[in-house]
Amino acid sequence: MTGRLCIIFIIAAFLLIACSKQAGLTESQIRLSEAKNAQAILIEKANIILDTKVKGVFLEDLNHISYASEIALRAEQVFVDAKINLKSESLAALDNRIASYVNTAGLTAVKLLHQSVDMTVNFKKDIEDMPLQPLTSNSTSTSDGMVKFLAKQYSADIKSCCISDLKDIAIFLSQVDELEHYPLRKMIANVEVRLSKVLRHPETAKEYKNEINAIGEQYRKVRSSAQTLNNNL
Fold this sequence. Notes:
The protein is mainly alpha-helical and 233 residues long. Helices cover 84% and strands 0% of the residues.
């Protein structure tokens, strides 16, 4: 009887060990589970930002959209760091949601670039239209002071209306796709240099605006395609 009991205990022990091995997770499964959990937290955070912070006015929403985009990149990096060659459906949905703002970003940038050129041309005209002062120390001083005032005002206006927002748009577009949006981002990076050239040579403004329109064409095409699709539905 004792021998039989020993055999039963041994068999039971082997069964327990076998079940334990079956129920346990492999190292790769554990890594996948942990990565999924970490990624899900980030995806949820980004979606909450888009749900609660974005109100429908693009330039006011841009910082929130860009932050959500940054979180999406971190969520994608979770799988890269864990050496997992997968992309979850929830992350793909988040990426699509963020990508829906890209066309608006491009068209807004084009509008701001045009606005910055117009402001620069108008500033140059204001300076040129100032009445010539008699060559006396007093009048020259007054004229120089007015030019400096207008220049300071122009710099503040161009930054608040256009430059700051353009740089924020460039950051957002680089998060979405560096290569696809490189031409527009490069134009934004060079905007102050190009505006300085327009100040020195106002006749270059038309050429510059044509370049802006050429780059903006890809974003106008996307909008046109989307409108055509909506009309056909």
